[in-house]
Specification:
Number of strands: 12
CATH class of the largest domain: Mainly Beta
Strand content: 5-15%
Oligomer: single chain
Shape: elongated
Helix content: 25-40%
Low-confidence stretches: none
Number of domains: 2
CATH topology of the largest domain: Rieske Iron-sulfur Protein
Strand order of the largest sheet: 3-4-5-6
Structural class: alpha+beta
Distance between the termini: 86 Å
CATH superfamily of the largest domain: Rieske [2Fe-2S] iron-sulphur domain
Length: 354
């Protein structure tokens, strides 16, 4: 036996052995114990127990459906009174309980289904190449059939229908919540078409509310703009109005502006153009201006708009150009709006015709 420099014996494994820590273990030192004896479940032995488990599973699925419907009902009909915090808490509580019980019931039912009713047998999955032979592919189809038979998905119709119904009902509260983001008593398309801007209204700096003269803008400068009088509104009205009326004001060289329609040539003044700050993708504020390229960048999803070409979309998921606010100057040289936007501002909702 060889010794190392510390005077201790080195362990030299045999040709057919492996070193494990400081011990030498031969490959045949242990035998494979195999799988433990199969222990049948009570639902495998007692048909009545299996029937009870089945009732529990589909009962939970139908309970999930009822909880989803309850969440939608709570969102729509539990009243929220102005300046009443308790009513807000109750609405939120009922809505949260409905969604929570809906998802919880699906999870418990799925686990109980798998543990009590699906086929219970031990198996070994052997690895194989990703692309199998035709025989393997045919066997895969057969396995799906066997899985369907073992799970009872096709045979246990109440469980199957309950699962399908629960999965269909569960997203309903989310749909109701997202729909509630838009006004319920008006047409969203028409609501976003009209803002606070009107003929003769001055453009003012955000957030000070001071009027802007055309001479205040130099080539390449960009101002965030709000309508005159916006800052004098009550806070909740101001925020709602600003969310639709916010504008980015930019001055370019007149020769850099390219117009595809004659009408738009009169919407600018001496190279000064005004476009909505609300991205037409999902409504994020478009605020990053690249002076050299004349591009506007939305920081949320990287949509880019070309100010020199009517704010056309040149990159990203936005579906349409930023709406332009027609502007001119009054007798005192202050920039004013010629009218409101001529098209809806904000994201292109699914119910809006592009």
């Amino acid at each position: 036996m060889a010794k190392n420099e510390n005077g201790k014996a080195d362990i030299v494994p045999a040709d057919n052995a492996e070193v494990t820590g400081t011990s030498v273990v031969a490959p045949d030192a242990f035998t494979n114990p195999g799988l433990p004896p199969h222990r049948p479940r009570i639902t495998d032995l007692d048909p009545k127990a299996a029937k009870r488990a089945e009732r529990v599973v589909y009962g939970l699925f139908y309970f999930s459906i009822a909880a989803s419907v309850f969440a939608v009902w709570a969102y729509m009909f539990v009243p929220i009174e102005p300046e009443n915090v308790h009513s807000v808490r109750m609405n939120t509580l009922y809505l949260g309980l409905g969604i929570a019980f809906s998802l919880l019931a699906i999870g418990i039912a799925a686990v109980h289904w798998g543990k009590a009713l699906m086929a219970d047998k031990e198996a070994i999955d052997h690895r194989h190449p990703v692309r199998g032979s035709e025989e393997t592919r045919a066997r895969a189809v057969e396995i799906f059939r066997e899985s369907d038979e073992e799970s009872g998905f096709s045979r246990r119709t109440l469980i199957r229908n309950g699962l399908i119904g629960a999965l269909i009902a569960f997203p309903l509260p989310a749909i109701a919540l997202f729909r509630g983001l838009a006004p319920m008593d008006v047409d969203p398309n028409n609501e976003l078409k009209h803002t606070m801007w009107k003929k003769g209204l001055r453009l003012t700096r955000d957030p000070q509310g001071t009027p802007i003269k055309a001479s205040d803008l130099t080539i390449g400068s960009a101002f965030q703009v709000i309508p005159e009088g916006l800052v004098d509104l009550p806070e909740h009205e101001m925020l709602n109005a600003k969310a639709k009326a916010a504008v980015l004001l930019v001055r370019l060289k007149k020769e850099d502006l390219n117009w595809t329609s004659k009408e738009r040539e009169s919407w600018s003044y001496d190279g000064i153009v005004a476009y909505s700050k609300i991205c037409t993708h999902v409504g994020c504020p478009v605020a990053l201006y690249e002076q050299q390229t004349h591009h506007l960048l939305c920081p949320c999803h990287q949509s880019q708009f070309d100010i020199a070409n009517e704010c056309a979309v040149i990159f990203g998921p936005a579906a349409r150009p930023l709406p332009q606010l027609p502007i001119t100057v009054d007798d005192e040289g202050y920039l004013i709006a010629q009218s409101d936007f001529t098209e809806p501002v904000g994201p292109s909702f699914w119910e809006r015709a592009k």
